[in-house]
Amino acid sequence: MKLLLGILQGVLFVAYPAAVYFGLSRLSTRGVGLLLLALLLPGVLRNLWQRRGQLKALVSLPVAVGLLIGLAVAFDDERFMLAYPVLVNLVLLQQFAWTLRGPTSMVERFARLQVDDLSDGEITYCRRVTAAWSVFFVINATASALVALLGTRAAWALYTGLLSYLILGALFAVEFTLRKYLFRRYGDGLLDRVFALLFPPKAALR
Question: Which of 65, 97, 98, 174 has the most beta carbons within 10 angstroms of its beta carbon?
Answer without folding.
Answer: 65
